[in-house]
Amino acid sequence: MSYFTRLVRFIPKSSASSTTATVTPLIGEPVDPKLDVGLASYDSKHVEVEVYSGPSILNPGEKTGKKELVDRLLSPLAQSEVGTIRCIGLNYVNHAREVNMPIPTTPTLFMKPSTSLADPHPEPTIIPKSFVKDNAADYEAEVAIVIGKEAKNVSEEDALDYLLGITAANDVSSREAQFAQSQWSYSKSFDGACPIGPAIVHKDQISKLSEVQISGILNGNTVQDSKLDDLIFSIPKIISFLSQGTTLQPGTIIITGTPAGVGWTAKPRITLKDGDEFRVFVSHGVGTLINKIVEEK
């Protein structure tokens, strides 16, 4: 039996009158197990949470018996907890086909800094003014995994022992900058380029990771839709590969690739514009990550 089913990190309504700088976020489990907390929060509906005693999803403690209403959802992990975000590129079979690239035989790794981590709505996704002129901002719906304990030289067979759970992410990208370089980090590392949330679901609540469903929805239209059975490199393979010779600390976020349907290769091409809204839905209780796009002036 896992010590939690799913958790959210949030600012409670009881602290809403305080300044953000003085509020300590809480960790807790939504009371309604079927509630999509991302959609409910976006629609200003009550999201009631059983508060845990711990300060982090990495150390949640126990249920306190206290309940709070969510005022604002935060990313499940704080920037100070994640170190460098690992990112796997070109990791869905159908995405590789849509971009006319061969199926890779080794995972492609790039990284985002912790400063790219961002919250769900109402925090916006800001396209920096240095990239706005390119008209090349793109979405990438992704399943994010969180490492729960220190992992190094882990075998593929043992890899899931080190997995804490899954959440949703959007690997926001600037395509002109991406394809102007051989390394992708610059084009994907700006502030807010990795919103995650709204909830983290414990691995023990998912009997088959391959059955996890992910969708990307742009302005109400589903543009990406897949299960993890389309992954080229499975989650155990990714964890094992990244841990070879390298210590993955608790709190490490790994985003696992995006399915087919990105905007840059769509016909006609789709790019993110000021006022757009992008949603990432992940099944099994993760819910819907929502962010509105703002172009920096």
UniProtKB/TrEMBL annotation:
UniProtKB keywords: Metal-binding
InterPro entries on file: Fumarylacetoacetase-like_C, Fumarylacetoacetase_C_sf
Entry's Gene Ontology BP terms: oxaloacetate metabolic process
UniProt keyword annotation of Oxidoreductase present: no
Protein family membership: Belongs to the FAH family.
Alphabetical list of Gene3D superfamilies matching this protein: Fumarylacetoacetase-like, C-terminal domain
Source species, domain of life: Eukaryota
Protein name: Fumarylacetoacetase-like C-terminal domain-containing protein
TM stretches of this protein: none
Stretches assigned to the Fumarylacetoacetase-like C-terminal domain: 84-294
Protein source organism: Kwoniella dendrophila CBS 6074
Gene Ontology molecular function: any one: metal ion binding
